[in-house]
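Example with several molecule types.
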Amino acid sequence: MQTNGIHNSFFIHQLKKGETAAFEALFHLYFEKLHHFAASYIENSEDAREIVQNTFYKLWKKRSRLASDTNLNSYLFSIVKNECLDYFRHQKIKRRYREEVERERAAILEHSLRDDPSLLCIEQELSRKVNRLIDQLPPSCRQIFIKSRFEGLKYAEIAHELNISPKTVENQISKALRFLRNELGEYLTSLL
Amino acid sequence: MDEKELLQFIAGEGDRDSRLKVISWIRDSRENRLYFNRLKAEQVARFQSQDKIDVPVEWRRFVTRTKSRKRRYYGISAAAMIALLLGITGLLVTSGPEAGKPYTAYNAGQTEQKNFVLPDGSKVTLNSESSLEIVPGFNDGTRTVRLNGEAFFDVTHDKDRPFIVETGKGISIKVLGTSFNIKAYKENTTVKTTLVTGKVELYEKNSTAPSAVLSPEQQAVFDPENRKISVEQVSTSSVTSWKEGVLTFDNSPLRNVAEDIGRWYGVSVRIASPELEDYSFSGKFLREYSIEQVMNILKTSSPIHYTYDKEKNIISLEQRR
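Resulting C-alpha cells for the full complex:
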C-alpha cells in the first residue's frame, strides 16, 4: 500500500478543516523526533519540549491557511529550526552561557544549525522514519488508519469500501492510535 | 583531529581540555567547521535519543493550551461584562500565557497585571513591570525561577521538587507548595515576602541554612544592603489586593506609593518637595480609576498638590502650603 501519508493533500485538507484526529496523528508521529532534533542542538531537553509545543501551536494556528501542497515534514522541520535559532539568540542576550567553554560550544552548535546543507540529511531521515512508522502499523489497521486519517474518509465510507462493519473500523482506528501512543517507543528501538 | 574526539564532543563527553582542543580545531578553518557540522548532523539523523518523551502527556498539554486560550478568551469577555456591572475593570487586565516562549520569561509591562501557569501547574500573577524567568532544568530536582518585580505565587505541592524563587538581590525563597507574594523591584531597597498559606524558607546567598521561616500572615522584609531580615505580622489581603485590581497602602511612604502608581498607570510620578519624602499614605485605589482620579484622591486626603505634564507623561507632587 502506498503510504506517502503526510504529504497527502487529503491530510492537509483534514488539517484545514480543523480535524483534530489528523492533527493528533501528526503530533504523535512527529513530537519525539522533533524534540530529539531540537534538544540535540540547544542541549536542553525541557526547553526543547517547549520549542516543539510552540511549533505545533504555530501549525495549529496556521492550519486553515496551509497551501494544499505543503510538505509538512519540511514545514515542521523548519519551524523547529527557526525556533531553536531564536532560542540561541535569546540565550545570548540572557548571558545564560556563563562559562567560556559553554559559550563556545553553544556558538558552534548555533552555527551548525545554520548550515542548511548539513541539516538536509536530518530532514530526509525524519521523513523516512515517520513514513516507516506508518508502515509499521499492524497491517490490519494500517489501511483503515490511512484511509481515515490521511484520506479523510468517514468510518461508514471505509466500512462500505472494505465491506466490514463500522464498529470494526472504529476498533482498528483506536488500535492504530494506541499503537502510536504506547508502542511507538519500543518499535522505534526495535525496528528503526 | 581524531573523529573519536569530535564524537565525544558532540555527545557532550570529554574533559575540559579535550573540549577546548575540539573548539579551537573547529574554529581553525572553514573546512573543519563544515566537517564538524556534517558529523553533528549525521549523529542527529540517527535519531537515537536518550530522552524519553511521554507523547500522550505532551498531547494533553497541547490540547489544554489550545482549549484554555479559547476558554480564557470567553472568560475575559465574561469578566469584562461583570467588571462593567461592578465597575471593576481591573479584571480586564489579566490575560493568558504569552504566545511567545514560556521557556525563557513571562513578562508584564507597564500598567499590566498578568496571570500565568508554569509547566508544573503553579500559578503566577505578575504585577506591572515584572518578569519571571524559568531557569533551565525547571522540574528536574528543583523548580527554580528568577523574579524581577512583584509576583503572587500559588505553588503546586511537590515535596520532591522544591520551588525556589531567586530575586537577584541576595535572597531566595524556597517552598514546597504554598501561596505567597514577593515584591523585589530593582528600585526597591528591600525584598518583601508575604506568606498567605503554607510555609516558606528564606535563604541568603551562599547560605545553606534558612535565614527566616515564615508562617501565614507574616511578612519578611529583607534589606540587601545590611543583610538584615525582619519579620512582622501583616494583613495579607492588603499586600495581595493588587492582583484583584486594588492598590492598597497602609501607612506606606509616599515614595513607594509614587512608584506603585507609576507602574500601574505608566507614568513617572516624582516627588518635587523633599518634605513629602517623609509623608506616609493610607488608602485604596481601584484599577478602573483614571490617573486623574487617583491624583485627586491623593490630593484631597493629603497636603499634596500635583501637576500633570501629559506630553512628557510626568506627574510632580508638591507639598501644598
